[in-house]
Design a protein that fits this description.
By secondary structure, this protein is an alpha+beta fold. β14 and β15 (about 570-580) form a beta hairpin.
Length: about 850
């Protein structure tokens, strides 16, 4: 049969008039699509902007660097190296970074750079050299005041307002009042605080010192290979009489290292957004199904008037496509706004854990196309069986509802059987998978299977409850509950998914918080931890040893290294050593070990190491395995590769220890081995035990040694900061969980409106038999709350299963963190209570609105 555009157009016109008479049906469909696309696009835009920031990260006010120069022993770099590069004609930028504290004890990160060099290196459309035109985009920067050492820092205009509100007056850092200069957002400072390097060195008490040097190769040298570019830098340093072997030259990796570190974080956010997307689609599909069922008489009338089934089916498909386009467009715009709200939380997490800086986000039309395509495909795939079923309705059937002809109980059994098959398969696959991406995929299958169990669970629960009810109206209420399981099933599936997500995430967050606190209690054993500029550590160490109240001094050494593993030629790690007492008493071992005297004797004298759990899991390393550490890889010049094999040493793994929050793998070696290989002599941090108030010691270090409070941390302060960072890390997932539950509740609200509309005639019959309006409202509310209660009861074990999989599979494989799973029954009770109250509101309001109407008119409409 050929399609007729006039007939299709006529059908669409009739459908539109139907929606004008029943706007709730169209609103329910659009609401589900809008909410689904909003959460999907909101998280996608947030993730994509973060990932783009990794690869597009530039030096502040400048462009992307080709190489970074830093000191081998992690102390500050003498600025003579910078002047040597500039004299050699190599475009370079001096950068200093540090922490300053305000009078309230808050820490602020300050960055200083050579402003003139940064502006000069900034690429322009007309020139590539430092000319007056190079400064055109930077008119808001008061260069004269900054270069004269004025006590001022630059920040984005939006950040200045927040800082002023927080400081409640002039910002004072390290006892120096600062002027905050607001600059345009498009200069890309983000949340950074930037000063000219002359003032930054004074503020951070680092005269003539740099944190690192950024090197930029111009277009004419970009054709050279990496070794040749490094040779240019090395020759410039050697010509100036500097020892290039003491300087590490790191290449810009286009953000690959950060992308690899944060991949699991973004993947978890994507999983949460997809869950919210599915919940929204449940709502949309519920609206489509209700709308199609309510128009069944209309469809048959159109068929009887001579409109072909193909034309009718095409019109229905075009209607769904049109609703999806409108809903996706609105959802896309709302999603971009949601992304603007979520990005600050993501920026805090990425900055604190991974040291990543997020640039201002930009939206892309491809996101709308992806959201629209995914929503359209999912909507048509979900609705197609129902559309085909309606297109085959016999003309003689009249207005009977097709859904009544389907044995619902058999359908519930088939869904439950399919869910059991999926759960069984995933249980087998979970036992053999070791990759977190596969585990997340399996977790998605479990999430799909859980809602399929719900209708059968409610049906069985109602059957078991029915014999316990007294004869009369309450027996009727429970018996009739089975009739509303099917129309409410999709809305309750959305509620079930949201509850499971909340329970599982609460289990993960609560368990992780307890585990983290226990680990911190083991890891932190000193009263005060000091991490100043590495250059002054020897002087501070000597001062501490002379204080009679200091009962113990602990030291930690750290350097960057490379771990050579089969199939992984270059794995960056942190090579760490501590005094042997700290290693013995602060290392929480995961691998079984007696930690006997022989164990520690071998560790101190032989080539054995301890590795962190994340490193062990990521590269499948176990106790007894051999590893190779190329500790001097970054310091070798391109011309000194002949001795590289001598710099690589084999070690045996003797223990695996817990390590939380460290995104880079860590290897601990004994102090004797550290000294044996001539690694950096001075420690990077100190820890002390003090007989007295640690604040007294901090004050002495400030007044007598010139340290900033930002360089000292009490044990309590570290714990509070760790828990604070932990809370911020999970804040975005908590927000997404709350939004998902809100979306599901809104879906239940719309479903209840449609259901009460459909049940007005049965309610009118009961009213005609003498049942009061109040009794009717209590009856219907009780029926729906009974279904909600069964949903919550199923959500408890299913949410616990998801929590177990999140903790023992996904989190363990993605982050390398072993977390002891704990049951937080009060939290589960609160979630169920919130769900019951939310659902009660969602049920009671539409029921009250509908039953206020004259019920006898519903009987009259039914008889027509």
């Amino acid at each position: 049969m050929t399609l007729s555009l006039p007939l299709i157009s006529r059908c669409l016109s009739v459908f539109s008039r139907h929606y004008f008479k029943a706007p709730i049906q169209a609103s329910a469909i659009l609401l589900g699509i809008i909410l689904a696309v909003t959460l999907l696009i909101g998280v996608k835009a947030t993730n994509e902007n973060a990932k783009q920031s990794y690869g597009a990260a530039t030096e502040l006010l400048s462009q992307r660097a080709s190489f970074y120069l830093s000191n081998k022993d992690q102390t500050s770099l003498d600025e003579s190296a910078y002047f040597a590069l500039r004299r050699a004609g190599i475009p370079a930028l001096a950068v200093i970074e540090g922490i300053a504290s305000d009078p309230q004890g808050r820490s602020w990160k300050v960055t200083g750079s050579d402003i003139i060099a940064a502006v000069s290196i900034k690429p322009t459309s007309n020139t590539q050299t430092a000319t007056s035109s190079s400064y055109a985009p930077f008119k808001s920067i008061p260069l004269e005041r900054l270069l004269n050492g004025h006590a001022a820092v630059m920040m984005s205009a939006s950040v200045v307002d927040k800082v002023n509100a927080l400081a409640k007056g002039p910002l004072v850092l390290n006892d120096i009042p600062l002027e905050l200069i607001a600059v345009e957002e498009n200069l890309g400072l983000g949340n950074n605080m930037l000063a000219d390097i002359s003032f930054a060195q004074q503020l951070l008490q680092m005269p003539d010192q740099l944190s690192y040097i950024a090197v930029f190769f111009q277009q004419q040298t970009q054709t050279l290979d990496i070794d040749s570019q490094k040779n240019i830098v090395i020759n410039a340093l050697e010509d100036a009489g500097l020892d290039s072997r003491q300087i590490i030259i790191d290449r810009q990796d286009d953000g690959e290292s950060l992308s690899a570190l944060t991949n699991s974080f973004h993947l978890n956010l994507d999983a949460m957004s997809m869950l919210a997307f599915v919940v929204g689609l449940f709502i949309a599909y519920n609206g489509v199904r209700y709308s199609l069922m309510k128009r069944q008489k209309l469809f048959i009338q159109l068929l009887q008037m001579g409109i072909g089934r193909h034309n009718l089916l095409t019109a229905l498909v075009l209607e769904i496509v049109l609703l999806v386009v409108i809903g996706s467009l609105v959802g896309f715009m709302m999603g971009l706004q949601l992304s603007q709200w979520l990005q600050p939380m993501v920026a805090i997490t990425l900055a604190q854990i991974y040291g990543a800086k997020l640039l201002p986000g930009l939206w892309q039309w491809q996101w709308f196309a992806q959201g629209l395509g995914l929503t359209l495909f999912a909507s048509l795939a979900a609705c197609w069986p129902l559309l085909i079923q309606l297109s085959r309705v016999p003309l003689a059937q009249g207005g009977q509802r097709q859904a009544q002809l389907i044995p619902l109980e058999n359908r519930f059994k088939r869904q439950a059987f399919a869910a059991c098959i999926i759960l069984g398969i995933t249980a087998v696959l979970f036992s053999i998978t070791t990759q977190y991406k596969l585990s997340l995929l399996l977790l998605g299958l479990v999430t799909v299977a859980i809602p399929l169990l719900l209708p059968m669970t409610i049906n069985v629960g109602v059957k078991l409850l029915l014999p316990l009810m007294p004869k009369g109206i309450w027996h009727y209420v429970v018996a009739e509950t089975k009739e509303i399981i099917a129309p409410l099933s999709l809305a309750m599936m959305a509620i079930l998914l949201a509850l499971c997500a909340n329970i599982s995430m609460n289990t993960l967050v609560g368990s992780f918080e307890v585990t983290l606190k226990q680990w911190l209690d083991t890891r932190l054993h000193a009263d005060l931890y000091i991490k100043p500029n590495p250059d002054v550590i020897p002087e501070i160490n000597a001062w501490l040893q002379a204080d009679p109240k200091i009962t113990a001094i602990y030291q930690q050494w750290t350097t960057k290294a490379k771990l050579e593993i089969k199939a992984h030629s270059s794995v960056p790690i942190n090579l760490v050593s501590r005094d042997i007492y700290s290693i013995k008493h602060t290392t929480a071992f995961k691998s079984p070990t007696t930690r006997s005297g022989l164990f520690w004797q071998q560790f101190q004298q032989e080539q054995t190491v301890l590795i962190s759990e994340p490193l062990s899991i990521k590269y499948q390393l176990n106790v007894g395995d051999q590893i190779k550490i190329d500790k001097l890889h970054d310091t070798l010049s391109p011309t000194s590769t002949t001795n590289q094999t001598e710099k690589t040493q084999e070690f045996i793994i003797s223990g695996i220890y817990f390590d939380y929050g460290n995104p880079i793998g860590e290897v601990i070696i004994s102090p004797s081995v550290w000294q044996q290989y001539a690694l950096p002599l001075h420690p990077i941090s100190l820890a002390v035990n003090y007989q007295g108030d640690s604040e007294e010691l901090q004050q002495q270090l400030i007044t007598q040694q010139g340290l900033s409070s930002a360089h000292m941390y009490s044990q309590k302060g570290i714990k509070d900061e760790a828990i604070k960072m932990f809370t911020k890390t999970f804040s975005i997932t908590v927000v997404l969980n709350s939004l998902t539950l809100l979306v599901a509740t809104i879906g239940l609200f719309s479903a209840c409106i449609m259901l009460t509309q459909a049940r007005l005639a049965p309610l009118a019959r009961l009213y005609a038999l003498g049942v009061s309006r109040t009794q009717l409202r209590v009856m219907v509310t009780s029926q729906m709350m009974l279904i909600v209660l069964f949903t919550c009861l199923l959500a408890l074990p299913m949410g616990a299963i998801l929590g177990y999989l999140l903790i023992n599979k996904v989190t363990l494989q993605a982050f390398g963190w072993t977390i002891a799973m704990l049951w937080d029954w009060p939290a589960y009770g609160r979630i169920v209570a919130i769900a019951m109250i939310s659902c009660l509101v969602a049920v009671a309001l539409p029921l009250y609105w509908q039953t206020r109407k004259p019920l006898i008119s519903s009987l009259q409409q039914e008889s027509l």
